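Usage

Read records sequentially. Each one opens with the input sequence:
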Amino acid sequence: DMEEKQKKLAEMRKKADEARKKAAEEAKKKAEDAKKKAEEAKRKAEAKKKAEEAGEEYVEEDEAKEEEVKEEKMEVDADGKDQTKEAKEEEEEEKKEDVKMEEEEETEPPKIELTEEEQKMWFKVPAVGASTDLTATALGQSFGGFSIPEKSEGFDEIRFEWQGEKESKAYLKKWVLEKKRNSRMDDLQ
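and closes with the structure output:
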């Protein structure tokens, strides 16, 4: 059951990453188009300025060609309204973005709820056979010397993030005693 949830979550993350990549590509394409239009407008403005300086009338051949192309591109949609292909493409892109937004809303990871027992726990109990950062032998030899740091040991500041000082000392003492009851002691003589 947990593995299935993890697989679904991984799939959702993958879909969300793909959607982000597509959105980034589309934004990049739009930025490039805007940059091209700005460059074209700048080029036309410069050509117009040069023509005026030379005392000639500025004739925009590109605009005449663009108008002819736009007239050819005009299409009638289902409602009978005239639209250019560009306008249709923009509408399609907006629809795609809406669908992507809906997918992202659906792909949010499920909220996890803790049981009452889990809510009472302060620390995660390691699974049986799980790898740890200490071997059982090393822990068995050293846990008796574990302690809570104190100001007298030279620490500048001691913060107890989860519980207060008394509760932390009590927890450590309880843990050490429990380890002493349940651990194998190899160095007894």
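Summary fields computed downstream for this record:
- The longest helix spans residues 2-53.
- The beta strands are 75-76, 82-83.
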